[in-house]
């Protein structure tokens, strides 16, 4: 069963999430249900606060080949900057441009409890930064430069294809 997704302005989306101290079976079950919820809503990322869990757990999957399941993710290095459009499962039908670091190095624990250090760029880097913001009570609308109407999204994407 997927989780219901909390919608802005639910105050639980604005809390600082706690670090995970132990990856229990219960947390793995939560992780799998979060993934199920993300896929059901055609999302490319989801963070635990969005399902009402105040924990540093997030998932990003841009395509089926690369799924990032992250416990206690931390960005340890940022390089460059880029502007692109974002949306959020907790803020349906709202889209806007946000400035993010272009290249990030991040550390997190995976579902096995192994600590990984990964570099990401492009939209993957953006999606990870968006999800990590959720863990600190930050929504993309806090950082939006310009809102884009849903009906203008396709045009925006075409115009910025090469960015
Ligand atoms: Zn979001």
UniProtKB/TrEMBL annotation:
Q: Which reaction does it catalyse?
A: N-terminal N-formyl-L-methionyl-[peptide] + H2O = N-terminal L-methionyl-[peptide] + formate
Q: How is the cofactor bound?
A: Binds 1 Fe(2+) ion.
Name the Gene Ontology molecular function terms of this record.
Answer: metal ion binding; peptide deformylase activity
- Swiss-Prot/TrEMBL cofactor(s): Fe(2+)
Binding site residues for Fe cation: 88, 130, 134
| Enzyme Commission number(s) | 3.5.1.88
Q: Which Pfam families match?
A: Pep_deformylase (PF01327)
Q: Which UniProt keywords apply?
A: Hydrolase, Iron, Metal-binding, Protein biosynthesis
Active site per UniProt = 131
A Gene Ontology BP annotation from the UniProt entry = translation
Which major enzyme category is it? hydrolase
Its function, per the record, reads: Removes the formyl group from the N-terminal Met of newly synthesized proteins. Requires at least a dipeptide for an efficient rate of reaction. N-terminal L-methionine is a prerequisite for activity but the enzyme has broad specificity at other positions.
Family, similarity comment: Belongs to the polypeptide deformylase family.
- Read off the PANTHER family from this record: PEPTIDE DEFORMYLASE (PTHR10458:SF22)
**What name does this protein carry?**
Peptide deformylase
Gene from which the chain derives: def2
């Amino acid at each position: 069963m997927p989780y219901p997704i909390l919608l802005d302005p639910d105050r639980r989306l604005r809390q600082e999430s706690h670090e995970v101290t132990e990856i229990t079976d219960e947390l793995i079950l939560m992780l799998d249900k979060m993934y199920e919820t993300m896929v059901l809503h055609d999302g490319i990322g989801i963070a635990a606060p969005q399902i009402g869990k105040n924990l540093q757990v997030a998932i990003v999957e841009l395509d089926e080949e690369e799924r990032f399941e992250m416990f206690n993710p931390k960005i340890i290095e940022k390089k460059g900057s880029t502007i692109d459009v974002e949306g959020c499962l907790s803020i349906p039908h709202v889209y806007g441009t946000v400035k993010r670091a272009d290249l990030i190095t991040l550390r997190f624990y995976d579902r096995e409890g192994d600590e990984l250090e990964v570099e990401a760029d492009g939209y993957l880097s953006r999606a990870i930064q968006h999800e990590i913001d959720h863990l600190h009570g930050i929504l993309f609308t806090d950082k939006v430069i310009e809102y884009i109407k849903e009906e203008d999204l396709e045009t925006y994407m075409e115009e910025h294809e090469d960015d």
